[in-house]
Design goal:
Blueprint lengths: L1 H23 L22 H4 L2 H17 L1 H14 L5 E4 L4 H14 L11 H14 L2 E6 L5 E5 L22 E3 L5 E10 L2 E9 L3 E5 L17 H22 L2 E6 L3 H7 L27 E6 L9 H16 L3 H4 L8 H39 L9 E2 L7 E2 L3 E4 L8 H14 L4 H6 L5 H22 L5 H5 L32
Parallel strand pairs: 10-11
Antiparallel strand pairs: 1-12, 2-3, 2-7, 4-5, 5-6, 8-9
Helix pairs in contact: 3-4, 4-6, 7-9
Length: 510
């Protein structure tokens, strides 16, 4: 019993020692110190609670002001639209029926000229507004109207009237998104902005509405502006630049003040209205090459700011802009158009880094475009505009070919060394690691359009060569690359032909 009691006491001490060890040797990330007192104290809440509707409106207002007046935000918006969308992301139907594919391409091209209800934007412009919305609004809605047109709904128009805040995470109303028990959206609350207030809010069925946003976590129903984490850095940049400009202007000018003894007795007499200070007040202007004599008891002191502009200010601004660029996937060299100031290898690395960010943006856009594509093709099939082949289905059962199979053609990327890139693509094409579609997509074309255009050029060159009697035919005009072959000379001869001796002539016999 004594031994058992000793053993029991030993195990109890050991368990307490292990528990104390876990406390002392746990994760440093959750420990609070003198400098980190509140770490880990915030409750785990959803984004709809962390950013209620009133704060969301304030955030969007701040970012829209930056977009109007901040050149950095203006450059970010331009790059996002230009490099992600460019001339437009085009569909390439990927079914086995070429006639069906061609019919869809023709119908899409005609509809894409004016796909939205106002008739003022092309499909490429719609796509640009969609990818730009995640920066400043956080999300954008696309209403699929009965007329077959799209209606763009800014993220600020989605929500509840009178800025009703959702304080309970159990509430099915997630700032304008009504969800069921599983979190599936059922309806979207869309209203109008009148003098800054959201009014006339109406429910829109989820089947007729597409919400484009970037997800931060699985349980999320509204998008958060990508620039939300950059607001303070952008504000710091703006304020710092303003201060530096004022200091530089003061430093570049010669300003002087006149100091007078017993000036208190003149204060009330010399004080004037603020509107008159710069015209008839105490402001005097010196003319060059003149001498001014002071009154007895007066002295002149100049106002200067040495060391302006601050030479270290550029590095400070670059650091903050680099943080902003890294948050949204755009290197600061592209924002400031200074990529040419670095080395070739560094520039190439920046282009590849930027390209990967663009591809991620294009994949997100392609997902939204896929839903629009399926909606439009379904309508064309339903109204008889396009006849769906019997081997296909639009139900997604998997027993027949999917009628909505599509591939999206994205715009080409920047090239630094076109010769090296062409050689690399050729090697991959010969090895079978890339297709001609993959290569032509970099230029914003398709393999079919490239081959068709090349065939047209060859046919036109042949007609011109025949017209002008060029002996070499179309090849003389087309200027193809020379082709070289390496082989044994005897392998190139006919079976009964013998090699020729240059000294004997003929076939080598005497």
């Amino acid at each position: 019993m004594e031994l058992n009691g000793t053993t029991t006491r030993t195990h109890g001490l050991w368990d307490r020692a292990k528990a104390a060890g876990r406390i002392l040797l746990g994760y440093d990330a959750v420990k609070n110190t003198r400098n980190r007192k509140n770490r880990g104290m915030m409750p785990l809440r959803s984004e709809e609670i962390e950013l209620p509707q009133y704060d969301r409106d304030r955030l969007i207002s701040t970012l829209m002001d930056f977009k109007r007046n901040n050149p950095v935000c203006k450059a970010i918006s331009r790059l996002r639209k230009t490099d992600v969308v460019g001339g437009g992301v085009l569909p390439q139907p990927a079914t086995s029926d070429e006639a069906f594919n061609d019919r869809i391409v023709n119908m899409w091209g005609h509809w894409a000229e004016a796909p939205e209800v106002t008739g003022q934007m092309s499909m490429a412009e719609v796509q640009k507004e969609v990818v730009d919305s995640t920066l400043f609004f956080g999300d954008m809605g696309l209403l699929l109207t009965r007329s077959g047109k799209l209606q763009l709904i800014e993220g600020s128009r989605i929500g509840n009237a009178n800025s009703i805040a959702t304080w309970s995470e159990a509430d099915p109303n997630k700032q304008g998104v009504i969800v069921n028990g599983l979190g599936r959206p059922l309806r979207y609350m869309v209203g109008k902005r009148v003098n800054g207030s959201l009014t006339d809010v109406k429910p829109i069925p989820a089947r007729d509405f597409i919400l484009h946003f970037k997800r931060m976590r699985p349980a999320q129903w509204r998008g958060v502006a990508e620039l939300a984490s950059c607001v303070n850095s952008l504000q710091d940049l703006d304020e710092y630049e303003t201060i530096e400009i004022i200091s530089a202007k003061v430093s570049a000018s010669l300003s002087a003040v006149v100091k007078k003894e017993n000036s208190a007795q003149y204060e009330l007499i010399d004080r004037m209205n603020e509107s008159e200070q710069d015209t008839v007040g105490r402001l005097e202007r010196f003319e060059p090459g003149t001498f001014h004599y002071l009154e007895p008891g007066e002295d002149i002191s100049t106002i200067t700011t040495s060391g302006r502009p601050n030479v270290d200010g550029i590095q400070f601004c670059m650091y903050h802009m680099r943080k902003v660029g890294s948050a949204i996937g755009i290197p600061v060299e592209f924002i400031l158009s200074t990529i040419g100031e670095t080395s070739f290898s560094a520039s190439q690395g920046l282009v590849l880094q930027y390209q990967s960010a663009l591809e991620e943006e294009q994949r997100g856009l392609a997902h939204t475009l896929g839903r629009i594509y399926k909606w439009k093709v379904k309508r064309w099939i339903a109204d008889g505009t396009i006849e769906m082949p019997s081997a296909m289905c639009d139900c997604g059962c998997g027993q027949k070919e999917n009628a909505f199979a599509v591939r999206w053609q994205t715009p080409g990327f920047r090239w630094i060394n076109r010769v090296a890139q062409a050689k690399s693509d050729l090697a991959y094409l010969q090895a079978g690691a890339m297709s001609l579609d993959d290569i032509t997509t970099q230029f914003g074309y398709t393999a079919e359009s490239t081959l068709t255009r090349k065939a047209q050029n060859i046919k036109q060159a042949a007609e011109i060569a025949e017209k002008f009697g060029i002996p070499g035919g179309w090849k003389e005009l087309f200027n193809p690359f020379p082709v070289f072959a390496s082989a044994n000379f005897t392998d190139l001869l006919e079976p009964n032909q013998e090699p020729v001796d240059p000294q004997l002539g003929g076939n080598g016999q005497e």
